[in-house]
Amino acid sequence: MPPVFTMLLATLAFVLVPFLFWYLTWFGRKLSDADLGKYLTDTSAPHQTQHAIAQLADMMARHDPAAQRWHPPLLALARNQESEFRLMAAWAMGQDAKSDDFHQALLALLRDPEPVVRWNAALALIRFGDANGEPELHLMLRPYTLPAPATGSIALRVKAQDAFESGTVVARIKDENGNDQDVRSPMSGALERWIVSGGAHVVRGDAIAVLAPGADQVWEALRALVLVGQPADLEDVERFARGVPGMNERIRQQAELTAKAIRGRQGRR
User: Fold this and answer.
1) Is the model's pLDDT at 266 over the cut of 80?
2) Which of 95, 192, 228, 236 could pair with 131 as two cysteines, CB 3.0-4.6 Å apart?
3) What's the pLDDT band for 2 if we cut at 50, 70, 90?
4) What DSSP letter does each residue of the chain carry, written as one string?
């Protein structure tokens, strides 16, 4: 790993923070080994499994050797069918950058169908000195096109410029059998615009809305791109450096620093 990369990585070791809904969740009760093992393998109570992952992540961040015992169930959660567990496992694996198993699992998660899982994996890979997630970090700065999860008639639940958290129901689709399916935002942010109108017939996979990224997401991407950003990222980075409505001054200043770091690396080539 280049010395400059190592220095920056040490300086920005805090770049990995979970920016999704569970970021502010407090799991205060310390789990026993028995509970930790149970909750990491029995996912029938999602909150308990999230509690266990958070405690394991804390153990790894403190370099507790006992954490290695729980690596196998964490790797299994990274392959779980529920995206909540995969994204949290991606964040947790970033706390132990010495594990080759974690490294390989995170590279696999860059191909996950859920964007937030890919983004968490990309952030976690920074800890490994691995820039393979750079394209996903770039996407974190850009609007996201939301696909329809089902076929049917769509009812819109939010309007342009409305802000929402990850998991918020932004629309509902009624299929030909009269069954409703919620359309949830995979990310925190705001509705930039609807592509379809209320009552329209949509087909599964159709683009239905454009979502703008939230400030936390942009902040994490910008800090990670300080280390691995490429010239192709500059257009979006500099857009935030000029100031984007809804983004605070901290975002603008970080974008300036990120753009400077990218141009600096470009100049050394």
Assistant:
1) no
2) 228
3) low
4) --HHHHHHHHHTGGG----SGGGG----SPPPHHHHHHHHH--SSHHHHHHHHHHHHHHHHTT-GGGGGGHHHHHHHTT-SSHHHHHHHHHHHTT-TT-HHHHHHHHHHTT-SSHHHHHHHHHHHHTTT--TTHHHHHHTTS-EEEEPSSSEEEEE---TT-EE-TT-EEEEEE-TTS-EEEEE-SSSEEEEEESS-TT-EE-TT-EEEEEEEPHHHHHHHHHHHHHH--GGGHHHHHHHHH--TT--HHHHHHHHHHHHHHHHHHHT-
Residue spans of the domains in the chain: they are 3-139, 144-213
Tens digit of each residue's pLDDT (9 = 90 or more) over 104-116: 999 999 999 999 9
- In CATH terms, 144-213 corresponds, of 3.40.640.10, 3.30.70.2190, 3.40.50.300, 2.40.50.100, to 2.40.50.100
Question: pLDDT at position 13, please?
Answer: 43
Distance CA 226, CA 13 (A): 12
Q: What is the pLDDT of residue 198?
A: 96
